[in-house]
Every structure is written in C-alpha cells, then in structure tokens.
Amino acid sequence: MGDLTIKDVRVILLSVPYVEQPSLQAGYSRDRDILLCEIETAAGHVGLGYQLYLREGMRTTKAAIEEQLAPGIIGRDATEVEGIWKDLWTSTLADGRGGAPVLGLSAIDVALWDIVGQAANMPLHRLWGHAQKEVKAYGSGVWRGMTREGMIEKALRFKSEGFSAIKMQIGFVWGDKDDVENVRLVREAVGDNVDIMVDANMAYTADHAILMGKKIQDYGIYWLEEPVVPDDYEGYFRVANALDTRVVGGESHFTRYDLKPFFQNPVCPILQPDVIRGGLTDLRKTAAIAETFGLKIAPHLYPELMIHLMASITNGEIIEDMGLLGDLWIDWAKPVNGIMTAPETPGHGLKVKPEIVRDCRVI
Fold first, then answer.
1. N or C: which end of the chain has fewer CB within 10 A?
2. Is the pTM of this model over 0.85?
3. Cα dihedral across residues 330, 335, 341, 342: positive or negative
4. Looking at the domain assignment, is residue 209 inside a domain?
5. Are 7 and 42 in contact, with CB atoms under 8 Å apart?
6. Radius of gyration over every alpha carbon of the chain, rounded to an integer in angstroms
7. What confidence score (pLDDT) does residue 25 get?
8. 212 membership: H or E segment, kind and range
9. Distances (CA, A) of 330 to 34, 146, 241, 261
C-alpha cells in the first residue's frame, strides 16, 4: 500500500460555466462554483473531495479547511478515516455542527476514502461491502424557474432518455393554482408510467404544505420533498401524518445528529442526506441507522459519487441525477436508460478533466 502518511492538503476553487443553466429560481443565472480538495500521501496517492456551490460560500469553506481542519490531519495516516472524522468534528463543536466546518470536513472525508480505495485497489462500494451493481436513477431538473412549456419539455426529455422517474419543483415562483396546474400538465405529458417527485424546497409552513399536498396527490405523486424548513421537525411529522403521499427530506440537515428526530419518529419513509453535510463516513452511518427503522435512502445530488454508497447498502431507494457535474469528469457512471452501474475503478474513480482545472481555476 505504500506510505499513506498525509503530507499535503490542497484546496482549489473553480468557476465553471454550466452546460445547461439550471432555472432553480426565476432569473437564476451564474456559473458553477466548485471546490476541490486534494489530499496527497507520502506514497503519492492523491484523493479527491469536491463540492458544488449553488450559492456563495466556497471561499468560506476553503478558509475553514486551511485554517481549522488541514493542520489537524497533516502527518496522520490516511486510513484513519474514522478517527480523523471524530477529531475534526469534535474540534468544531463549539463553533460548527453545521456550515463551513462540516462542509470542509466532508470534502476531506471524501478525499480520504478515495485514497483508501486507491491503496486497496478496490472501488468504494466493494471496499464497504458490495450489495448491488445497478441502481435506479431519476431525472431531476424540471425547475420552477422555467416556463410551463419548458417544464413539460424537460419532463418529456427525461422520459425520452429512459428515466422512469423525474422530479419537478413547486413553491416560491408560480403561486398555488399555477403549481397545481403545472403538476397536472406534467403528469398528463409523461403519462402514468413515469413517477413524479415534487420538491417544495422549504417553501411552506406545515399547514400550507398539507393544503398543497392534498391538491396534488391525485396526480400520483411519488413523494413530496422538503415541504418545510429543516428545523421544523414537528411540521414534517404533521405533513406526513396528514397526507397519503410520502413526505421526504434531509438534504439540508447536517449529519446523522440533525436527522435523529426522523429516526425517533419514522413517519417520513425516505431520507435524502447530502454527502457535503457529513461526508461518506457519516452518510454510511445514516444509512445503517435508517435501515434499523425501516427507512430508505435517496441521497441528494452527486450521483457519480452516490453510486458507491447505493451499491453498498440494502436500503437504497433511488439516485438523483440533476446533470450538474457530468461534464467535469474524465469518466463517470452516467445513467443509461435511468440505471446507473457501479464502476470498478479504485476509490471513487473520479478525476477532473485537466483542461477544466487549467481554464476555470479561480484560486
């Protein structure tokens, strides 16, 4: 395996134009801010952690890594993933438990697992214990900032690409009546054999979410996602208990500790943790705890990385593909007819195209 002593931690910031500009909100227009965290060992392994920023913040995370986190791992063995996670988490308890310190911790954690897989010459899903080779994915990106015609066109494009499930957004932009009509028209366009997930992105109070949920549930909605703000756990539970539709969430919660109320009252059957809010180490623990309570995992974004998690657990539901980073990689396990196949390259196997780093580097 060679000498796995960590000798260097490098943070690179990129600003990369989108291949297809997302319409997350009306008028949303910006390039992709991407943070790369490279960790190098004495033997020459280079592990990669990375994050996409849809809003500002990557410089803050860079500072957190360089000032708070990296000094605590230089000189340690890269295989000390659990110990490093615990020590970095503990070091930020007084001023972290969320935000930039955990974002930084997560990037480091992903890079360390990449090193461990490279050193073992195994893909992460086999290192962790392989469970399944193929995982269903859904096309995510029928955005609220589109025109109605644009939403229908995007949904039909996903269907033509072989996805049997898609996700659309409601809330914030259109108004309730128009949102309901958008759901109706997308259902009419794709037919009954395509699952439709509906994402509110924290648009509502619990009572408003219940009213909207009842209005759209007749259109065969697969789930209603993130109806209320993350800390309104009782709101989540009220909505889940009031609707026949599944109510899901978790992408904005930091680590398994933030998700604890969903385990204690498991009325939301699918959790959607995000790897940037705890890293792969915490994500695997979240999946194990969720399975104990009969809950499934449908991770938020990063399909090229989440295929390793989902191929190594038995309670995975589905992977989200929003098409936000596919052009970044030299190679990745892109969905084919709505199915992702776990790669066999060591580590997570992701390498950024060198020309993107060269041409789009900010710092």
1. C
2. yes
3. positive
4. yes
5. yes
6. 20
7. 82
8. helix 206-216
9. 16, 30, 45, 40
Same domain, 259 and 312: yes
Instruction: Give the C-alpha distances (Å, rounded to integers) separating 274 from 52, 116, 253, 256, 300.
Output: 12, 21, 8, 11, 5
φ, ψ of residue 167 in degrees (nearest 5): -130, 135
Q: In 10 A of CB 6, how many CB atoms? A: 24
pLDDT for the residue 342: 98
For residues 57 and 160, membership in a common domain is answered with no
Q: pLDDT by residue (tens digit) across 6-23?
A: 999 999 999 999 999 899
55 located within any domain: yes
What pLDDT, on a 0 to 100 scale, did the predictor assign at position 1?
78
Same domain flag for 328 and 231:
yes
Whether 121 and 304 have beta carbons less than 8 Å apart is answered as: no
Residues 105, 150, single domain; the answer is no
To the nearest 10°, report the CA torsion of 66, 72, 74, 77. -140
Three-state secondary structure readout of 105-164: HHHHHHHHHHHHHHHHCCEHHHHHCCCCCEEEEEEEEECCCCCHHHHHHHHHHHHHCCCC
> What pLDDT shows up at residue 193?
97
Please give the pLDDT value at position 213.
98
Examine the domain organization and report whether 180 and 259 are in the same domain: yes
What is the C-alpha to C-alpha distance for residues 214 and 243, in angstroms, rounded to an integer? 7
- The closest of 111, 12, 2 to 347, measured between CA atoms, is 111
CA distances from 318 to 16, 74, 120, 259, 279 (A): 28, 37, 28, 19, 19
Do both 99 and 145 map to the same domain? Answer: no
- Cα separation, 308 vs 285, whole angstroms: 14
The count of residues in the chain is 363
Alpha-carbon dihedral of residues 262, 237, 295, 195, nearest 10 degrees?
Answer: -130
Q: Is 246 helix (H, G, I), strand (E, B) or coil?
A: strand
Structural domain boundaries enclosing 72: 6-121+353-360
Low-confidence ranges of the chain (pLDDT < 70): none
Predicted pLDDT at 28: 86
Q: Tell whether 116 is covered by a domain.
A: yes
User: Three-state SS for 297?
Assistant: strand
